Amino acid sequence: MALTKEQIAKRIAKEVKDGYYVNLGIGIPTLVANFVRDDISVEFQSENGILGMGPFPFEGEEDPDLINAGKQTITALPGASFFDSAMSFGMIRGQHVDLTILGAMEVSQNGDIANWKIPGKMVKGMGGAMDLVASAENIIVAMMHTNREGESKLLKECSLPLTGVKCVKKIVTNLAVLEITDGKFHLLERAPGVSVEEIIKATEGDLIVNGEIIEMKF
Amino acid sequence: MIKKTVANVREACEGIADGMTFMLGGFGLCGIPENIISELVRRNIQDITCISNNAGVDDFGLGLLLKKHQIKKMISSYVGENAEFERQMLSGEMEVELIPQGTLAQRCEAARSGIPAFFTPAGYGTEVAEGKETRDFKGKMHVMEKAFEADFSFIKAWKGDEAGNLIFKGTARNFNPVMCGAGKITVAEVEELVPAGELDPNQIHIPGIFVQRIFQGEKYEKRIEQLTVRKRN
């Protein structure tokens, strides 16, 4: 069975280590916060200017001066701090943030990512995505393996306008966990009940399958 | 003490004219200079170039200026869900320049700090880098970006004093501090304006040297764009 969005988030949460500062993008990445082990210390950064972001406020306790980058009302945890946008992106470009998790429309086998623009459609903007992908050492992409038409989103080359080049190293999809090295996708894990053949079929880019591929554990 | 206070928003906006470039603080609707935006609408200033991370919503924030067709060009990182914005952009009535958010912040900071240009990795290999100088530093490619030039910076802070010193609250800080001193004239509106000496100098986020005019906003709606809450168990 292919993973649900929650299960993708749950699998990615395993990559979050003790002591990490983490930036979560909008969509599936946001869900990762719900599955991080509670016996480790992690701080979430939102690029609009908070470290130590907490859960949504209780009804009636929302503060219009306290939102995340998705413009949702949030809370600040003990130890949190606020800062301006230049400092926020200083943290990101200066590689002080340990892990960036974001969504993508397409990823290519050399690590290019496209996630901000579809020609012919209303363009909303790249927000902080270009700064994040250009700078982060450790990027995990959360995405569906194929689009609604069943076409692969893991490609030899991206067809959409790029957000960044050669920056993605790890991908968690609804079918598999993959790594990008030497300009190729490498299959690391498969979703429970999903065969290697199904993953090969759903991957347009070059896919290396080495030995026995284990099932994901959560 | 050099006094920066002006009586009201009308006095604060003295000198604004058609065709000018304005920087406006805020992220979404959080920390936007509400009173100044209302004044720009009231004066019906035309052909404005706005440097602002976002473009408001249909009936609030910069959306109010859009509705009256006062904006010639938007320079933003994310323009979100705004039907009128989309219509004006697609019809070509309004020009839009989208730039990475960190680059937007740094171009403000550079303008304030006397740095004419800088190199950033953001946007390298994408259409953002087209026509720009690129350079390799330590084996990584970077794009040259230039400091903004703006006539006015419009800022919203939480507290301020007569000397123009500012303190921000929560994530309403965002682009506001980096735009202070980045335009030729910086105008700050605050929720609470106090006499000099009442703010602890240790707690000040932006020193008054970067602010030319300060006033207390008449009212703040502080609209929430996306109300997200959890239930008490």
UniProtKB/TrEMBL annotation, chain A:
Keyword Secreted listed: no
InterPro entries: 3-oxoacid_CoA-transf_B, CoA_trans_fam_I, CoA_transf_AS, NagB/RpiA_transferase-like
Gene Ontology molecular function: any one: CoA-transferase activity
Keywords, sorted A to Z: Transferase
PROSITE patterns recorded: COA_TRANSF_2
TM region positions: none
Domain of life: Bacteria
Chloroplast in keyword set: no
One Pfam match: CoA_trans
NCBIfam families reported for this sequence: pcaJ_scoB_fam
Similarity section: Belongs to the 3-oxoacid CoA-transferase subunit B family.
Protein name in UniProt: CoA transferase subunit B
Organism of derivation: Aequorivita lipolytica
From TrEMBL, chain B:
Pfam families the record matches: CoA_trans
Alphabetically ordered keywords of this record: Transferase
GO molecular function: CoA-transferase activity
SUPFAM superfamilies for the chain: NagB/RpiA/CoA transferase-like
SMART domains named among the record's database cross-references: CoA_trans (SM00882)
Superkingdom as given in the UniProt entry: Bacteria
Coiled coil feature spans: none
Record PANTHER family: ACETATE COA-TRANSFERASE SUBUNIT ALPHA, KETOACID-COENZYME A TRANSFERASE
NCBIfam families registered for this protein in UniProt: pcaI_scoA_fam (TIGR02429)
Family listed: Belongs to the 3-oxoacid CoA-transferase subunit A family.
Protein name: CoA transferase subunit A
Organism: Aequorivita lipolytica
